[in-house]
């Protein structure tokens, strides 16, 4: 059966061990040579090599050495060496090893003592441990905390594996804990009582319950874990520890705050407790710099929201402070939580916060502004759908982004405008006026199609129809729809004496129709010297519609034709409009 391994060292050398050579080095070599030999022996043993013939040479020639590196390697050797024979009995040589190890436990150097105590923690043989118990106990009173904390762990390990060797260990550690002042030593002692004698741990905690807030964070963490465990097994004890948990919410350690808030949620569903825990999570969310911590805290807030939505609604504005994070994933999860908590009471404040965040994205220094702006626009859209009363407050703000370079944002804005203009007839006039002002900013075909549909559907007065037709004319420019020619002022040809590219000229020709008659055909030919990139650069900014049509966007052309038809029919049906105006529109 494979035995547990407490030490791993990489070794890619596969040469077989030279036993005689190693013996000779251990017996006659210098300290540096012995160090190299010990390293080889340890690696061989970790790789499964049995080297029983080297145990006595090591006890004779390495154990008495005062070389610090050799002492460290010797402790590793005792950890890896096979201490029993084939029948499971302790090898006789290990009695000598016990004596050497006992000398290390009383060594004047505290590091050597602490290292020896750590070795004791990994030993499971009662014959080896029994002679060492007296020395291990004495180390609980050593002046150096490093020795004391490892002595506690050694007693803990011995009691855990062989409790018959030291049956009074819980009492010893309890008395040690009452008089100890070092935080690390108290933590190790409390862990030992927590796992081996829980009643002693509870007794100690009860005696110092009012002082827990002054403990170090390493000990506070174990206290929280003990309280959680005790309250699960004995729910009647909850009220006893609630004050302590509330106090630990103010700990200086973020880990303790998180665990305390999580414990408080499990112990009580009272609104005061839930609100305190949620406030602690929000504090961690806004003040921790680690994004992983923020994501974990957001998951906990999401769980609280599912079970206590009313309490979380009062903390909504605090949650929105997490939007200051530069990470999009954190902003997205924050908005997802916030949108589920919006109520008629806080909708105005939420919209105000989202407006401020949108304004921040206008800065050129803002990282990932387009993606974040799209998220905010979607959030405002959802708020307006749930609470139509706020639509009038945000529609004009969102229309500033109808020409956003991010297609998804611009499409979401125009869809929102379409919903609002249908739902609120009183806002149609102002929305149409704002849409006509913004039509020259539109850069996407899909947005243009929706804008033209809105104008055709909701322009009813003659003034609105005239304004719409004029805006379309400005966007189209002069007819026919051809590529503009390069003029001398815009030409980049270095030789000005060379002829410029000719403008589009009409060509005439005679065609024979299907019935045999003749007809004259006129067509415009476009100069081939103008490249597509040049023509795009020459198009004026207000003529985006023209550039799309010239570029071959026939779907947009059909929508434009439908829009013009609707407006012209509506104009023709108006008896107050003169025939001259009607004819100009229909022409």
Summarize this structure briefly:
The chain has helices at residues 19-28, 31-46, 55-61, 68-80, 93-105, 110-121, 126-129, 133-138, 145-161, 169-179, 183-196, 198-207, 217-233, 238-248, 254-267, 271-287, 291-307, 309-313, 316-319, 328-340, 347-360, 369-386, 391-398, 407-423, 428-438, 445-458, 462-476, 532-538, 544-550, 554-572, 579-586; strands at residues 505-512, 518-525. The chain has 587 residues and is an all-alpha fold.
Largest sheet: 2 strands, antiparallel
Whole-angstrom Rg:
42 Å
Question: Pairing-aware structural class of the strands and helices?
Answer: mainly alpha
Average predicted local confidence, pLDDT = 81
Which residues form runs of ≥5 with pLDDT under 50?
485-504, 525-541
Question: How much of the sequence is in beta strands?
Answer: under 5%
Number of strands: 2
Count of separate DSSP helical elements: 31
Summarize the amount of helix as a percent range: 55-70%
Shape: elongated
Strand order of the largest sheet: 1-2
Distance between the termini: 98 Å
């Amino acid at each position: 059966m494979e035995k547990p391994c407490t030490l791993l060292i990489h070794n890619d050398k596969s040469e077989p061990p030279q036993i005689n050579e190693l013996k000779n080095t251990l017996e006659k070599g210098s300290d540096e040579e012995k160090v190299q030999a010990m390293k080889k022996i340890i690696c061989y043993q970790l790789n499964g090599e049995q080297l029983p013939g080297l145990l006595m040479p090591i006890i004779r020639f390495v154990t008495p050495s005062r070389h610090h590196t050799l002492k460290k390697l010797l402790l590793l050797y005792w950890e890896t060496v096979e201490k029993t024979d084939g029948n499971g009995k302790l090898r006789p040589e290990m009695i000598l090893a016990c004596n050497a190890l006992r000398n290390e436990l009383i060594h004047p150097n505290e590091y050597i003592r602490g290292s020896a105590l750590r070795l004791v923690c990994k030993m499971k043989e009662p014959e080896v441990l029994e002679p060492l118990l007296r020395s291990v106990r004495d180390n609980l009173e050593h002046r150096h905390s490093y020795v004391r904390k490892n002595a506690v762990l050694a007693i803990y390990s011995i009691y855990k594996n062989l409790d018959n060797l030291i049956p009074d260990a819980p009492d010893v550690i309890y008395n040690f804990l009452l008089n100890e002042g070092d935080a690390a030593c108290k933590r190790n002692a409390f862990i030992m009582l927590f796992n081996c004698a829980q009643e002693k741990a509870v007794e100690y905690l009860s005696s110092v319950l009012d002082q827990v807030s002054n403990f170090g964070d390493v000990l506070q963490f174990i206290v929280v874990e003990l309280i959680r465990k005790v309250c699960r097994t004995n729910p009647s004890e909850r009220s006893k520890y609630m004050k302590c948990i509330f106090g630990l919410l103010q700990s200086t350690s973020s880990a303790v705050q998180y665990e305390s808030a999580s414990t408080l949620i499990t112990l009580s569903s009272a609104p005061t407790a839930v609100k305190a825990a949620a406030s602690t999570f929000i504090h961690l969310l806004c003040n921790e710099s680690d994004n992983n911590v923020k994501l974990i805290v957001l998951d906990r807030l999401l769980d609280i929201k599912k079970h206590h939505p009313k309490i979380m609604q009062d903390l909504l504005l605090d949650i929105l402070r997490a939007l200051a994070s530069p990470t999009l994933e954190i902003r997205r999860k924050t908005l997802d939580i916030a949108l589920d908590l919006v109520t008629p009471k806080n909708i105005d404040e939420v919209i105000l916060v989202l407006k401020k965040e949108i304004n921040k994205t206008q800065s050129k220094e803002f990282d990932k502004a387009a993606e974040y702006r799209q998220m905010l626009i979607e959030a405002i859209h959802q708020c307006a759908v749930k609470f139509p009363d706020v639509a009038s407050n945000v529609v004009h703000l969102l229309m500033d982004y109808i020409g956003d370079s991010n297609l998804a944002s611009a499409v979401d804005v125009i869809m929102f405008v379409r919903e609002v203009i249908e739902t609120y007839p009183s806002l149609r006039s102002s929305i149409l006026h704002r849409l006509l002002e913004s039509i020259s900013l539109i850069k996407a075909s899909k947005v243009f199609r929706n804008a033209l549909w809105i104008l055709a559907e909701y322009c009813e007065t003659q003034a609105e129809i005239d304004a719409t037709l004029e805006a379309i004319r400005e966007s189209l420019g002069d007819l026919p729809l051809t590529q503009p020619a390069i003029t001398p002022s815009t030409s980049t040809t270095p030789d000005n004496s060379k002829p410029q590219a000719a403008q589009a000229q009409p060509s005439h020709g005679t065609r024979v129709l299907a019935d045999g008659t003749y007809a004259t055909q006129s067509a415009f030919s476009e100069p081939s010297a103008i490249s597509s990139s040049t023509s795009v650069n020459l198009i004026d900014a207000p003529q985006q519609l023209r550039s799309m049509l010239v570029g071959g966007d026939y779907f947009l052309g059909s929508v434009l034709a439908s829009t013009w038809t609707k407006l012209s029919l509506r104009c023709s049906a108006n008896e107050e409009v003169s025939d001259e105006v009607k004819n100009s529109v229909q022409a």
